[in-house]
């Protein structure tokens, strides 16, 4: 088993019309043993920026703490919140810095730029970044997630449509994976607010 699959995860970020969504499953397991069903894998950096961290749970928690600290330093120095594209460069640099003993994490970043345009990107464990205009997925069942997203996503999705599409993609994807599931959480980010919803999934 790959070390990335040890705890199990499923994360999707998806762009819409002046909005962006990010969601993950809620299972925390040790290989095939489920330990808890309310484990957070998507973290809020500020009102317009979220990061999802798939991979080894201990590394994702350490990485999240480092990112919060770095954002706080940025905010003190610049007196403003960091842009998603700038934050992606920061995460990439932190990952590459540790390339000889990497964090076993695969970050997915979703946020709104200052002009209101959605920004999503993903990267591997050494910080090689890939941006997209439609969706980014990571996790133990990324093939299932990709298949669902490719069949359901379309350009210019409104806020409620985006929530519906990402929710169906997430639930359908994690139903095909023994290492992820047990419900999900989805965050929809608009210029005015962040809407968080918890989804009920199969509990087996």
TrEMBL record:
It comes from the Eukaryota. One of its GO terms (biological process) is proteasome-mediated ubiquitin-dependent protein catabolic process. Its main location: cytoplasm. Gene3D superfamilies: Glutamine Phosphoribosylpyrophosphate, subunit 1, domain 1 (3.60.20.10). It is found in: Cytoplasm; Nucleus. PROSITE patterns: PROTEASOME_BETA_1, PROTEASOME_BETA_2. SUPFAM superfamilies: N-terminal nucleophile aminohydrolases (Ntn hydrolases) (SSF56235). Keywords: Cytoplasm, Nucleus, Proteasome. One of its GO terms (cellular component) is nucleus. Component of the proteasome complex. Component of the proteasome, a multicatalytic proteinase complex which is characterized by its ability to cleave peptides with Arg, Phe, Tyr, Leu, and Glu adjacent to the leaving group at neutral or slightly basic pH. The proteasome has an ATP-dependent proteolytic activity. Belongs to the peptidase T1B family. This is Proteasome subunit beta. It comes from Tetradesmus obliquus (Green alga).
């Amino acid at each position: 088993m790959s070390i990335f699959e040890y705890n199990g995860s499923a994360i999707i970020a998806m762009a819409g019309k002046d909005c962006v969504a990010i969601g993950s499953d809620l299972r925390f397991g040790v290989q095939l043993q489920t330990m808890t069903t309310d484990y957070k894998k998507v973290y809020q950096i500020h009102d317009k920026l979220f990061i999802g961290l798939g991979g080894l749970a201990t590394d994702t928690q350490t990485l999240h703490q480092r990112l919060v600290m770095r954002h706080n330093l940025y905010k003190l120095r610049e007196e403003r919140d960091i842009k998603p594209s700038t934050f992606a460069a920061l995460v990439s640099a932190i990952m590459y810095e540790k390339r000889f003993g990497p964090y076993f994490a695969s970050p997915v970043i979703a946020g709104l730029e200052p002009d209101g345009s959605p920004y999503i990107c993903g990267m591997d464990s050494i910080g090689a970044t890939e941006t997209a205009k439609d969706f980014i997925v990571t996790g133990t069942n990324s093939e299932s997630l990709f298949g669902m997203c490719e069949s359901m996503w379309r350009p210019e999705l409104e806020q409620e449509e985006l929530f519906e599409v990402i929710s169906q993609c997430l639930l359908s994807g994690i139903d095909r994976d023994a290492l992820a599931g047990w419900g999900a959480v989805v965050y929809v980010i608009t210029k005015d607010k962040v809407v968080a919803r918890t989804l009920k999934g199969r509990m087996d």
